[in-house]
Amino acid sequence: MTTETITIFDTTLRDGEQSPGCSMNTAEKLDVAKALVELGVDVIEAGFPIASPGDFEAVQTIAREFGDRTTICGLARCRKDDVDRAWESLKDAEQKRIHVFLATSAIHREHKLKMDKKQIVERAVEMVARAADYCSNIEFSPEDAARTELDFLCEVVEKTIAAGATTVNIPDTVGYAVPAHFRHVIEYLKQNVSNIDDAVISCHCHNDLGLAVANSLAAIEAGARQVECTINGLGERAGNAALEEMVMALKVRQDAFGFTTNINTQKLFPTSRLVSGITGMHVQRNKAIVGQNAFAHEAGIHQHGMLQDSSTYEIMRPQDVGYVGTKLVLGKHSGRHAFRERIGELSYELDDETFQRVFDDFIDLADKKKEIYDSDIVALIENRTDEAAGRWKLVSCHATAGPGTVPTGTVELETDDGVIHCDAAIGGGPIEAVLHALERVIGITATLEDLQIRSVSRGKDALGEVSVEVLIDGRTYRGHGVSVDIIEGSARAYLKALNKAEADSRLAATKASSNPTEK
Ligand code: KIV
Ligand code: ZN
Q1: 33 CA distance to ligand 2 centroid (A)?
Q2: pLDDT surpasses 80 at 310
Q3: Is the per-residue pLDDT at 329 higher than 70?
């Protein structure tokens, strides 16, 4: 007997991107989309094309780039313009889906939409049919389904399936459901919608009560065969069901659920790192599956058990999820060959130039730090890989501060043409002074919204990972920098954010000069 596969629908780039402070630019969305394709997700919800020209461009680019490898989906409200715009952005993809939604609960009908039940059904049917004229793969979501009267939900689902919906998604939009309740909703639809077998039932659970994964698993037990989720559980408010938790629950407890997925689970940890790096949303240390402590055993009795047999306290192996822990791996005397091998084992591919930079950083670090962990190596790699795209490279930075002195920062930057640019500035402290000096060299003024420093591994000599969020011309940019010196780490993080802003303004200037009439 073959095992049935649950469709994994990832909405990191749509619902995840909607969460405060998580917006991404097109290049960042493309990086995430590539990682999702390699992870093996079945459907990527790439965005909400009508929301802005940037959203449209991102969905279209992802559709063109990856639409031959997985299904690319775009969201639309039940409005003609939304559906048309979603289709425009998706039409070049080989595999595409339009996702149409309309709220159905009494609260939304009365207070938000000011529409009665009849109008809701008519609008949903009309827009599903419009989308189905464009495309054979249509998803319909009755928003706030978990708080919708069951008989009305059945009516909407039945009529939208008849109009052409091939997937009906049941959202718990406000995270109100509990597992028994949500299981009952799905069972009720299975029993009372006459054409339910003509569509795939999906679930989309929010995590306001911390139950998104539990509710999604209950939905699967009741008959759902698609689950909507996000990397690291990103999403509106408390987020959506975490993809990594869903997938590993189904895999580790296949005995209980009896399903499989197409996910390459060894890519879960690297994908989680990539998304937290790009969005700046740190993963809590004790987060299931992808937290730094997810496989750490502190208690002596546990460590003793683990030494006898890892299955005593481990229900899955760290390598099954591509976990990069604080395992001691390399030292000062490890050569280039061992280092390259370790990078391969950590699933990274580096071109020769980036490899050389990371290797030099590693030798530098090994001089300063006694023990080097996998997590240090990953931080060094990430430090150099997202730096490669920037026009300005940090050559040196220096700060002086202390009682009775005015904190002063000096920086030297190099541009692609090999020219060195330097400047100095003062600030309230040494970090601020260096950041001001960077702004003077590049000629951009930014507002620092957030700066966080975390240690990458353990010990007083640990690498510090600095994340910054800055506001430039009304747009948010993020950057990360890693160093044993927090001033240098802050400079690297800030420089990455400024590089992104500068690239955006150069792009806008190029577009304006190639089309001078466009405003
Ligand atoms: O939470 C929700 O209801 C949604 C829909 C658009 C599916 O995100
Ligand atoms: Zn949602």
Answers
A1: 19
A2: no
A3: no
